[in-house]
Amino acid sequence: MAIERTLAILKPDCVRKNLIGKVVAHIQEAGFTVRAMKLVQLSRAEAEGFYAVHKDRPFFGELVDFMTSGPCVPIVLEKENAVADYRTLIGATDPAEAEEGTIRKLYADNKGQNIVHGSDSVENGRLESNYYFPEFEIINNAG
Ligand code: CMP
């Protein structure tokens, strides 16, 4: 299996609930390596740009309101099969449908405020990582 990159975001609800440490520990214990991480307050334009693929969906305004409601933590993760394995680790978008033991089942309130983001393809893993981090900020010898 190939080494892949995926972009995680610890969303504003994760930061507000003081769950940064617990969620990062959960991710690292599952074998992911952190290659880049920072705390950022997104502007509306930045959140709209990141979620542009959803711009015609009825929940788009709500999504942008939420993602700009406080700081969030984008994290570049690397591992063999990272994209699919990270999506398994976080569980379904709606925590009510997520498997027991997944990050969303453990910590998320609802589909809109669901604690974490994860890239949905290898290509998006690369593109989304570079939305938050220029290549020189993604560390290749992080362990
Ligand atoms: P994420 O994986 O970050 O990417 C798109 C986000 O849209 C998704 O997580 C959800 O948080 C959000 N989303 C999807 N469906 C709905 C919905 N029906 N209502 C509100 N937010 C939603």
State the gist of this model:
The chain is an alpha+beta fold and 143 residues long.
> What bound compounds does this protein have?
adenosine-3',5'-cyclic-monophosphate
Under CATH at level 1, the class stands as: Alpha Beta
- Helix proportion of residues, in percent? 25-40%
N-to-C series of helices and strands: EHHEHHEHHEH
Write the CATH fold name.
Alpha-Beta Plaits
What would you call the structural class? Answer: alpha+beta
Assembly classification:
single chain
Strand order, largest beta sheet? 2-3-1-4
What CATH architecture label applies?
2-Layer Sandwich
How many individual helices? 7
Low-confidence parts lasting 5 or more residues at pLDDT below 50? none
Q: What global shape is seen?
A: globular
CATH superfamily: Nucleoside diphosphate kinase-like domain
Radius of gyration in whole Å, from Cα? 14 Å
Largest sheet: 4 strands, antiparallel
According to DSSP, the number of beta strands is 4
Walkthrough of the structure:
With 143 residues, the chain is α+β, with helices and mostly antiparallel strands. It has a single domain (3-137), classed as 2-Layer Sandwich (Alpha-Beta Plaits), CATH 3.30.70.141. The protein has helices spanning 12-16, 20-29, 44-50, 60-67, 82-90, 103-107, 122-132; strands at residues 3-10, 33-37, 73-80, 116-118. The two termini are 19 Å apart. Adenosine-3',5'-cyclic-monophosphate (CMP) binds at residues 54, 59, 62-63, 93, 111-112, 114, 117.
